[in-house]
């Protein structure tokens, strides 16, 4: 079914081509985007969305939440929660398949907005205000904003026929896959997607835009020096607040600054994945507004970006609030009691005390770079390298200790269930820091142990531990499959009863199915060899058992 309003229909020949290729129409489109929304703002009526049956919160998230007299084009992004326990996706139900399986997972949609506000005497009250929104499950901020820069100006001139053509082009794109270089043509431009830093190339034949193909929110590409310029002297505090998953509100003068700052903050702990919720642009109309602003319980572990001055009063009980101004001057840390309702000045309103000392040499170097107008790319490289090394220094001792919990390879035998991974002991880990702690790779001084203790209570530790534990369990499964494959299974069956042999076949089948479902990275030939063994054993059994096992 068409991801647009009924007035924009897929070309008949496009649908025929898709059917000839053995795929559903719009299948490739939906691997990149949920839908494209066109939202018009009318000063008399308020927001109105042209794509049918989508939640009204998209309308509010597609426009600046507070008055802005600026004219022209603006880009920003938002993130919204997908409903839990419904059939598939909240929006996919409306647009694609009503019979999708029920999912209990909480996931999010990312919205990428291109907003235009220009004077127009033909419009009531003299302003044309409209947003083009790309809604996707993929957190590829840089890519989708680049895509909007290509298609949005053309859309505002030619309207629906332009979007129809773009959608048909996207429906021809290959599905996104990590590690591959993809050429994605759209409107005469080729977006070349690969896992490297963004480069812009302009050959004679076509314009090719090369940029990051990013698989996680924590790896997004932003102009960090611009986002952090007014907060450079507090860089250590910001990194710790994000690392610990602390409740944090960014009050910014525009949705662009709000969304870029939030996304830059959560990327500051890369390669560690940020596991709390975050909203680059949050409004009073958001479906989680009451949940996040209630005063009956502690603030949730979430990073919110807002622009409406109303939030100054609403978030007065939150422990960490950053108020950004229009000018990039260095802001100060202030007491929360000084957070006023109307004339709140820019600053970091918090009582938080950092566990680690500032890197004064780095701050001085970055501030000097601003004074000397050092290129943004150089400033960004300095900042990213510092944050990366800081996070790695923190996470390497955890990774080293986690690896020590893995059973020895020689303890994995073909005739027994794989041994268990030893439980994580915080006290045992702390005891390792004296001889293999972060001081081996970081020059920063301070209370590293205190930082680790608080990190253990954060969503980021929980997410990291679950991910690493799952990887280790899968590694044990791979090792077990490999030692089973190398064992003399046929010899083992010679003196065994039919019941024992059937039990072995069923267990091996279960392991193979589980390995295929989890896409375990076993050595080449292991799966085929075990599958051949199962078939060989079944063929040696009596006919009645062969029939039972063949239909099992």
From TrEMBL:
<dbReference type="GO" id="GO:0005085">
    <property type="term" value="F:guanyl-nucleotide exchange factor activity"/>
</dbReference>
<dbReference type="InterPro" id="IPR024224">
    <property type="entry name" value="DENND6"/>
</dbReference>
<protein>
    <submittedName>
        <fullName>Uncharacterized protein</fullName>
    </submittedName>
</protein>
<dbReference type="GO" id="GO:0055037">
    <property type="term" value="C:recycling endosome"/>
</dbReference>
């Amino acid at each position: 079914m068409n991801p647009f309003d009924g007035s924009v229909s897929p070309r008949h020949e496009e649908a025929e081509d898709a059917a000839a290729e053995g795929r559903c129409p719009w299948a490739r489109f939906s691997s990149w985007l949920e839908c494209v929304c066109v939202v018009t703002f009318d000063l008399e009526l308020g927001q109105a969305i042209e794509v049918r049956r989508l939640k009204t919160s998209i309308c509010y998230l597609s426009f600046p939440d507070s008055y802005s007299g600026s004219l022209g084009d603006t880009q920003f992004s938002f993130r919204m929660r997908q409903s839990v326990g419904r059939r598939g996706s909240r929006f996919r139900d409306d647009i694609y398949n009503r019979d999708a399986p029920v999912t209990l997972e909480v996931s999010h949609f990312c919205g990428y907005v291109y907003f235009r506000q220009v004077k127009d005497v033909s419009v009531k009250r003299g302003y044309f205000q409209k947003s083009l929104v790309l809604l996707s499950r993929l957190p590829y901020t840089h890519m989708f904003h680049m895509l909007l820069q290509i298609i949005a100006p053309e859309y505002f001139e030619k309207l629906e026929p332009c979007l129809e053509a773009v959608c048909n082009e996207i429906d021809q794109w290959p599905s996104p896959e990590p590690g591959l270089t993809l050429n994605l043509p759209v409107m005469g431009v080729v977006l070349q997607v690969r896992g490297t830093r963004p480069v812009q190339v302009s050959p004679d034949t076509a314009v090719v835009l090369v940029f990051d193909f990013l698989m996680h929110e924590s790896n997004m590409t932003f102009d960090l020096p611009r986002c952090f310029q007014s907060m450079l002297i507090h860089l250590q505090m910001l990194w710790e607040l994000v690392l610990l998953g602390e409740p944090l509100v960014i009050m910014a003068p525009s949705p662009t600054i709000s969304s870029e700052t939030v996304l830059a903050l959560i990327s500051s702990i890369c390669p560690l994945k940020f596991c709390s919720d975050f909203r680059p642009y949050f409004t009073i109309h958001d479906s989680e507004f009451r949940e996040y602003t209630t005063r009956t319980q502690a603030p949730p572990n979430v990073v919110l970006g807002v622009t409406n001055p109303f939030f100054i009063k609403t978030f007065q009980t939150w422990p960490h609030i950053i108020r950004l101004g229009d000018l990039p001057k260095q802001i100060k840390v202030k007491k929360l009691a000084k957070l006023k309702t109307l004339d709140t000045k820019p600053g970091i309103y918090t009582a938080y005390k950092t566990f680690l000392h500032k890197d004064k040499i780095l701050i001085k170097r970055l501030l000097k770079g601003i004074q000397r107008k050092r290129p943004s790319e150089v400033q960004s490289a300095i900042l990213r390298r510092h944050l990366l090394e800081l996070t790695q220094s923190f996470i390497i001792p955890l990774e080293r200790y986690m690896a020590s919990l893995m059973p020895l390879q020689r303890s994995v035998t073909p005739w027994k269930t794989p041994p268990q991974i030893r439980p994580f002991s915080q006290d045992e880990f702390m005891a390792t820091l004296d001889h293999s702690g972060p001081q081996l790779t970081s020059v920063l001084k301070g209370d590293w142990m205190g930082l680790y203790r608080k990190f253990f209570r954060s969503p980021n530790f929980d997410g990291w531990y679950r991910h690493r534990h799952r990887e280790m369990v899968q590694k044990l499964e791979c090792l077990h499959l490999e030692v089973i494959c190398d064992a003399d299974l046929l010899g083992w069956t010679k003196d065994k009863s039919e019941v024992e042999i059937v039990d072995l076949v069923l267990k091996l089948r279960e392991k193979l199915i589980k390995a295929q479902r989890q896409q375990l990275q076993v050595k080449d030939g292991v799966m085929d060899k075990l599958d051949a063994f199962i078939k060989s054993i079944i063929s040696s059994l009596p006919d009645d058992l062969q029939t039972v096992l063949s239909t099992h």
